Every structure is written in structure tokens, then in C-alpha cells.
Amino acid sequence: MTGADFRKLVGPIKKVDEKDTIPNIHLFKEVSSQLRVLARSSPEDKYLLVTGLQETGNVVAVTGDGTNDAPALKKADVGFSMGIAGTDVAKNASDIVLLDDNFASTIVALKYGRAVLDNVRKFIQFQLAVNVVAMFIVFFGSVIIKDSPLNAVQMLWVNLVMDTLGALSLATEPPAHDVLTRKPYKKDQAIVTEIMWRNIFGHAIIQIIILMIVIFVGPTGWLVQPYQVLCNHNDANGNCDTWNPFYARDLYVTQEAINDWKSLNL
After folding, report:
1. pLDDT 10s digits, 141-155
2. Are residues 117 and 213 in the same domain?
């Protein structure tokens, strides 16, 4: 379709409350859904196309190198201009300047742009899952067993590990191979999707079950045995009591442990 035919079908842009709008947006949707190439288009035709796509909820990117491309570059959500052949007007109106004038560089920008959103979602999913478990364990311990399994220092340590190591590992992942095969995201699409909520609460439930087993079954000796019992059981020469009172005697809490530690000839 040529630019003149496109402009004749859709109609010129009208201003409504100081905002550019398409007079017949329903016809524009029908035409744009079948449009593949807009030949012999004027700057007004490009601006009309960009405006209509934005009104229908699309995120629009425009490439250009000439002065007549400036209105469309400025109107678009992301404008790409050529760094070598592009004019200064086009460069100033664009958001990204392709220094090598290679159109394939826009593909790289698209891949890493989508990868940023994916990595942010991964980190949010990780953070929310761990925080849900931590809040439940602290609340459950404070209400039911009258003592929180995690004290303030441990909670700070958990958050430190999550905010540093978790953020670095998840936020620096390279783009996936199929990142460009997905449909574009809508502007009003939520960052936390339904699948993410399912993963968050699914992982949280599994972690809560495991932690409940550790909290209630662990002290009984069925899950694990105290270090002192295992040490004395497997040590026939008595070296365990001689060399490990620091670990096996509750960190110097008892006077017996203190005396054993002082009696060693170190």
C-alpha cells in the first residue's frame, strides 16, 4: 500500500484536547493488521502510522536518517537514527543512535531490552518467594511456638544474600535464544504475571513444608542427631571429648566444658 492510499483510507490526524488522534481508529485497526509495507510514504504518513499504532496499545519503534523522519522518530516510543549517514535533526529526535549504521544492531537492542524485563521478573519472583516464606516462618514461630526461628541478624543475612548474590546472578543473565519469537508486551501488562504468582506461591509452599519438618522433627533426633552424640558414638579413642569441647559442649555454657578446654595442653 502506498502512503497516499493509506492516508486516504484512515484520514488525516486530528487534534483533540491538544493530542493527536486518528479519526477512524476502527478502520485503522483493520488496515494496519494487513499492512506489511507502506511505499512512497511522506513524513505525515509515517507520523500517522506511528500515532495509530500507539493508540491501539502497541509499542512502536522507528528507524530513520533524514530530517523528514524527525516527527516520527520523536513520536515513537523508541527512535533509532543512523550515526554516520543520519542528519543532526534525526539524531536529536531519536532515542538511540546506531554508530555503525547497521540495521542488525536494532535486533541486538531488542534482545537486550526484552532480556532486562525478563531478568527483572526473575529477580522479583525470587525475592517474593523467599520473603513470603520468611514472613510466614517468623509469624508462625512468634504466634505458635512463642519464639521466632529467625532472629534479627539472621533475617538481615537472608536479605543481604538475596539482594546481592541473587540480584547479581539473575539480573546479569544474557538474553534467551527465543526472546524475539515472543509476542511484544503491552504497555499496561503487569510486571508480575499469573504464571509468576503461581511459581511464587508454589515454591513458597514447598519451602514452608520443608522448614516445618526441620523445626518440629529436627530436635527429636529423627531427622538429625546432635553433634555431641554422633561424635562420641563414632570416636573410640576419646579424642572427641578432648579436642572438641568447643563444639560439643554448647560453646562454653557449662563449667565442665570450660574446665575441659582449659585442661588441654595446647
Report:
1. 888 877 777 778 888
2. yes
Range of the domain at 197: 113-220
pLDDT of residue 204: 92
Tell whether 165 and 189 lie within a shared domain. yes
pTM of the complete model: 0.65
Strands 19-21 and 14-16: antiparallel
With b for 16 or more beta-carbon neighbours within 10 A and e for fewer, the 51-80 pattern comes to bbbbeeeeebbbbbbeeebbbbbbbbebbb
Residues 6+ apart with CB under 8 A from 44: 7, 12, 13
Max Cα-Cα span within the chain: 100
User: Which residue(s) pair with 97 in the sheet?
Assistant: 81
Please state the length of the chain.
Answer: 266
pLDDT for the residue numbered 61 = 87
Confidence of residue 183 (pLDDT cuts 50, 70, 90): confident
Task: Fill in the amino acid letter for 159.
Answer: N
Q: Report the CATH number at residue 77.
A: 3.40.50.1000
Q: Are residues 238 and 200 in the same domain?
A: no
Q: Which three cell numbers stand for residue 48?
A: 500517522
- pLDDT tops 70 at residue 258: no
CA distances from 56 to 8, 75, 83 (A): 19, 15, 31
Whole-angstrom Cα distance, residue 97 to residue 58? 22
pLDDT of 198 over the 90 cut:
yes
| Same-domain pairing of 88 and 150 | no
